[in-house]
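Quick one, tokens below:
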């Protein structure tokens, strides 16, 4: 396979820009690029890397984009509390869910945000439900980490149903946070498509027989189901609502130094009809709605439905990629660990996402070392320039995969492009900066490699070509400023 045609010129642009500092540097150079590289090297070289020094370094370093980020999971529980209070809602004392004035049967056992905040024990307990906070302290009777993590999403949606303005406010909060840590682009999984259709007859037929779109009966089944979807008046209404939400929420958010884009997505833990109608709507929206640049598949990959329907989902992606070849997909795949699922479930997920579903990017890819076709998948990802989005904190918490067990070096060692991302910084209570600190302190990538990871987040984003070129030039400008500051600091101290 040849290099991915669309990204090749951009990689060349970045490679041309990258050595500028070195080319201009004098021999035994004291130029900003070399001084920064040397400064960084001193931070990661000791047996125990200088974590505080790396925090300062990566807080200031331009990081390009965060392109694997879930909107609701990126906001902190404190943000939600503020809105719950403003909206005149309460928190349930029994399960910490949001109670609105409409929940007339549940108004008794509630606490106001003000009283919650003033009750230290209750407040601590609230945060353990709404995020991973204090999990490592064994503060409460523990859920398994994957259940703890994914359960938090149960809480988030209700406040947005109360007042849709919080979508915009949340996006502005994420923008402010991004700019504060020198991130210039967010590609966030915003909301799932508004339309989904349940059809139990389709569900049982889709799960039986040959699951492959090369099979005539299977293809006919998908064709006729989609015909029903497109004839449903609700479909157009919901797409219209989705478009309005996207347009009103992102209006005026982009500026000279910041770009926001969305992915639509569908949950892998729904019946086949709900999944397929949602996935079709997601592709349709990515095609028709400005600002929506891609499609993803989300939720716990180890749940029984996700495992049982995995091959079916990949065929559904393949079918829709035929209809919408220009729509790009980033797919959560291989977010699994040994012992979490039976061994045979670790054998094929990334391979199928790449070779069947046509993923343009892989999210997580943690179980690659167990896959039967790992060698050819890695070669394919290298040659087709299909990057893996690495989420170190999330993988450590949900899967217990960290340090030497994490496959990030397997990917970089195989020549697969790598992107560093945050996944759910609100739930994990982390940031993109902390992801880089972990990466550098654990795996000691060189400064040039780290810089390439930052550039990859633009090169492999789903921005248009001209937008990418502008974003890369901005990133290069930011690096020049950054290296100037670090070099100055290193010289004076
Ligand atoms: Zn994710």
């Amino acid at each position: 396979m040849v290099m991915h045609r669309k990204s090749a010129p951009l990689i060349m642009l970045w490679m041309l820009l990258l050595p500028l500092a070195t080319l201009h540097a004098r021999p035994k150079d004291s130029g900003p690029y070399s001084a920064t590289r040397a400064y960084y090297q001193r931070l990661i070289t000791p047996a125990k890397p200088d974590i505080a020094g790396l925090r300062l370094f990566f807080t200031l370093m331009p990081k390009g984009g965060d392109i694997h980020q879930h909107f609701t999971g990126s906001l902190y529980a404190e943000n939600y509390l503020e809105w719950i209070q403003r909206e005149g809602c309460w928190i349930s004392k029994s399960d910490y869910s949001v109670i609105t004035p409409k929940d007339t049967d549940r108004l008794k056992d509630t606490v106001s945000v003000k009283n919650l905040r003033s009750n230290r024990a209750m407040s601590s307990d609230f945060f353990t439900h709404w995020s991973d906070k204090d999990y490592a302290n064994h503060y409460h009777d523990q859920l398994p980490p994957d259940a703890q993590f994914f359960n938090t999403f149960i809480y988030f949606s209700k406040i947005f149903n109360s007042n849709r303005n919080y979508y915009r406010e949340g996006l502005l909060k994420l923008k402010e946070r991004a700019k504060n840590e020198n991130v210039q682009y967010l590609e966030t999984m915003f909301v799932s498509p508004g339309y989904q259709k349940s059809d139990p007859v389709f569900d049982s037929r889709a799960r039986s027989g040959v699951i492959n779109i090369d099979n005539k009966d299977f293809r006919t089944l998908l064709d006729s189901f989609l015909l029903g979807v497109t004839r449903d008046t609700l479909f157009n209404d919901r797409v219209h609502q989705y478009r309005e939400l996207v347009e009103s929420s992102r209006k005026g958010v982009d500026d000279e130094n910041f770009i926001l884009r969305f992915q639509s997505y569908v949950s892998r833990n729904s019946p086949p009809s709900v999944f397929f109608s949602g996935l079709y709507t997601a592709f349709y929206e990515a095609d028709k709605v400005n600002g929506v640049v891609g499609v993803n598949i989300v939720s716990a990959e180890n749940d029984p439905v996700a495992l049982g329907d995995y091959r079916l989902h990949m065929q559904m992606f393949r079918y829709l990629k035929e209809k919408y070849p220009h729509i790009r997909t980033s797919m959560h795949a291989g977010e699994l660990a040994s012992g979490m699922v039976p061994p045979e479930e670790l054998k094929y997920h990334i391979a199928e996402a790449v070779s069947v579903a046509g993923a343009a990017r892989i999210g997580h890819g943690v179980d690659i070392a167990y896959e039967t076709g790992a060698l050819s998948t890695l070669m394919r990802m290298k040659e087709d320039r299909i990057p893996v989005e690495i989420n170190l904190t999330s993988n450590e918490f949900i899967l217990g995969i960290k340090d030497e067990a994490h496959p990030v070096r397997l990917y970089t060692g195989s020549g697969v492009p790598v992107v560093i991302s945050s996944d759910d910084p609100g739930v994990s209570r982390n940031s993109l900066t902390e992801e880089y600190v972990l990466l550098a302190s654990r795996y000691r990538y060189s400064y040039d490699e780290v810089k390439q990871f930052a550039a990859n987040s633009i090169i492999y984003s789903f921005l248009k070509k001209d937008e990418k070129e502008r974003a890369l030039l901005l990133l290069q400008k930011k690096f020049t400023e950054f290296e100037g500051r670090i070099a100055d600091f290193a010289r004076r101290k």
